[in-house]
Specification:
The protein is an alpha+beta fold. It contains two helices and seven strands; from the N terminus they run H-E-H-E-E-E-E-E-E. It has a single domain, classed as Roll (Mannose-Binding Protein A, Chain A). Strands 2, 3, 4, 5 and 6 form a five-stranded mixed beta sheet that branches. 25% of the residues are buried. Keywords: Disulfide bond.
């Protein structure tokens, strides 16, 4: 378990970054995993620290706009809940200092991107 500030460092060490949800299909895959394992919340790589109420992905810096929030989320601005967790009910915003499980995203190279040296 880590807080959000250390997740990016760990994910980088294993060749990835804190998971980013780019579309509803990716979120459904993560939600299905959470339901199958009975787990509740995992940090993903999104927050609204730079601009309250405007959630962005940590790695790509793209808006976190193609996501489904859990009912009642995101909470009202000013509640100091700047980080995002994926849950069985959808995404929720939480305080960043909480220790939590997390998801790393590790890119897979396409065949044409693999270079061989002979």
């Amino acid at each position: 378990m880590q807080d959000l500030m250390h997740i990016g460092e760990f994910c980088h060490l294993i060749g990835g970054y804190a998971a980013e949800i780019d579309n509803v299909g990716e979120q459904m895959l993560l939600t299905n995993f959470l339901q199958m394992t009975g787990n509740y919340g995992y940090y993903i790589g999104a927050n609204d620290m730079p601009n309250e109420g405007y959630f962005v992905q940590l790695y790509s810096r793209k808006p976190a706009s193609n996501v489904q929030w859990a009912p009642g989320h995101p909470n009202l601005p000013g509640e100091n809940e700047d980080c995002v967790q994926a849950t069985q009910a959808g995404l929720i915003n939480v305080e960043c200092g909480q220790l939590s499980k997390y998801v790393c995203e590790i890119p897979v190279l396409e065949e044409e991107e693999i270079a061989f040296n002979f």
